[in-house]
Specification:
alpha/beta, six-stranded mixed sheet, 9 helices, 16% strand, elongated
Length: 276
């Protein structure tokens, strides 16, 4: 897979996304665009890991933020179609909650929290720009009031009349983080976000970090391919050895030489001995 040049990245790339939202003012702007209301100054951590216990799987948040009211925000960029997205959101919520309360603390002290997945695909196939989930009683329609909220954004939405224009502009510029797109939106907050992205793309230090990260990923991918190839060769050798032994046992010794030259015959024999 050909990797994009650093200057070609947009906010769908996790690297640029985290770099942009690491700036507290930019993160606040994005949260306000998502929620459609002011939230006030925020504190931000990018790629924050939460480990409940060493024997269990841990969560690494793309962007974790909290505001002056102690409301927490987990912001995740999601490019691949993930069928397990709802349960992933549940796991993120559980990990957040488990780390907030110290022994003896009251459950009432759990802060309000938002888990936000920004998707470049429609996660629930209803063509909505935004899907908002809260715990609601099936029988009465009343909210549980546990303070948790899960939001899934969709850059491919079509319900323009049901959401603020600012949110639509933001989602368009996630996939096209360019000055031309920002100018087309004629939205001051989108222009401000784009200016931050443009400044980051001029950072030589950040570009070097990106290139180093890509080299590490390429090296890891090459190692995994080599390992898979080696494992395949070992499995293939073991399979052919089993086939030869079976043919000798059944008296087909004279036909063993055909295995190298006759592909169709080899396939037939593998099927005969259930080794394919």
């Amino acid at each position: 897979m050909v990797q994009k040049k650093f200057q070609e990245l947009d906010l769908t790339d996790a690297f640029l996304f985290a770099a942009a939202l690491e700036d507290a003012e930019t993160c606040q702007l994005v949260v306000e665009l998502i929620l459609g209301r002011p939230v006030g100054p925020v504190m931000v951590q990018v790629e924050r890991s939460m480990l409940y216990a060493k024997d269990f799987r841990y969560v690494r948040f793309d962007v974790f933020a909290s505001d002056e009211m102690k409301v927490s925000y987990d912001l995740e960029m999601q490019n691949g179609h993930k069928a397990e997205l709802p349960k992933r959101a549940r796991f993120h919520q559980a990990e957040m909650d488990a780390t907030f309360l110290k022994p003896g603390a009251k459950f009432q002290d759990l802060p309000e929290s938002f888990i936000v997945f920004m998707c470049t695909f429609d996660p629930f196939h209803a063509k909505k720009y935004r899907y908002t989930y809260r715990e609601v009683c099936k029988e009465t329609g009343e909210e549980l009031g546990d303070g948790s909220c899960k939001i899934f954004l969709n850059t491919k939405g079509t319900n323009k009349q049901e959401v603020p224009q600012e949110l639509i502009h933001f989602l368009k510029c996630i996939e096209n983080s360019t000055e031309a797109c920002a100018e087309e939106m004629q939205d001051d907050r989108i222009r401000k976000l784009n200016q931050k992205v443009a400044a980051l793309k001029k950072s030589r230090r950040l570009e070097e970090s990106y290139m180093t990260m890509q080299e590490m990923l390429d090296d890891r991918a090459a190692e995994e391919r080599a390992k898979a190839l080696a494992e395949g060769e070992v499995k293939g050798s073991a399979r052919m050895l089993a086939l030869v032994n079976a043919m000798i046992k059944d008296g087909f010794t004279a036909d063993i030489a055909r295995l190298n030259d006759d592909v169709e015959f080899c396939a037939q024999m593998l099927q005969k001995y259930h080794l394919n």
